[in-house]
Input
Amino acid sequence: MAPRDYYEVLGVPRGAGEDDVRKAYRKIAFESHPDRNPGDKAAEQRFKEATEAYEVLRDPDKRARYDQFGHAGVAGPGGGGAGGVDFSGFDLADALRAFMRDFGGFEDLFAGAPGGRGPAGRRMARGDDLQVRLKLTLEEIATGVEKKIRVKHLKSCPTCGGRGGKGEETCPQCHGRGQVRHVQQSIFGQFVNVTTCPRCDGEGRTFKERCPTCGGEGRVPDTETITVRVPAGVANGNFIPLRGLGDAAPRGGQAGDLIVLIEEREHPVFERDGSDLRIDVPISFTTAALGGRVEVPTLSGAPANLEVRPGTASGHIMRVRGRGLASLRGAPGDLVARLVVWVPSRLSTQEKKLLEQLGNAEGLKPPRPGKGLFERMKDAFAG
Output
């Protein structure tokens, strides 16, 4: 299936300004974000689709190629020209990172723009965000849990305190501008190419003496054990942002964040449906016919007892209120039990005789299909 038009996805006209594109994406992203729609695959797809559209339309170069060549202009490395975008592997994690880069997490968990201003008002780089996947069982999701994870990241250099060296001075190559200009002459005229200063990495400042530990970078590799507190009721695709625990920024900028992405392990007994838990409960024919009490396992381990009414059909649904999963927003879910009549595969001679006697009883024979059923079947096969 061909991808939808990016302007149509965001609901903006082709002449929409940058602010209009940003506002349109923000509205769709917040409405369809996985944290607000746990387990909703359609909402997840809308979120990814809107993010993909935003990533192209927010960038003037990518947008120009898209306007000229369509999706072919931004598909794959170099598509439609240098700097194409490959969305073939664009998954939920990529969409979440793009969303948090510009808007942060829900409830303003990531308030503030990336980076900042350092001494003398110069632009400070921001450390990279890191992502880890945390797999949880349904039991851990039901109660909430603390997990310890080992993270490899860049931390602030302990020798220079993240500054990178001693004797800070104006960069002699770019003279504090952070950029260098290269002028080239051609038969078509003069071309000026402006690039980031390679000596100061665009900061406009250097050091007379670089730190021997970090080589002037202001950060060093480190492995750290971090405790993550997971609230009860999280769902697959939810994320927990840990501010400042990503990579440290070079030379004193703002540290990146560590994004913990929740993955849910499949349970051997229960199936999750939002905050509800579903389970198939086998019952005997006699219990279905005569009624009785059935013991149903729960996630907490303490069984729940259900009263089965006489004449209950296989597939009948019963609910145990409040015995599902906790919810991040609202009341806990239910335990939904589907009663399934169990048929034994092996019978003793005595059991066979008893069942044959029951089978001959007129009251235990199923009703015969009506004439209308056979006529409908005949018409179906004839068609």
User: Anything to note?
Assistant: The domain at 271-382 is CATH 2.60.260.20 (HSP40/DNAj peptide-binding domain). Residues 34 and 136 are 17 Å apart (CA to CA).
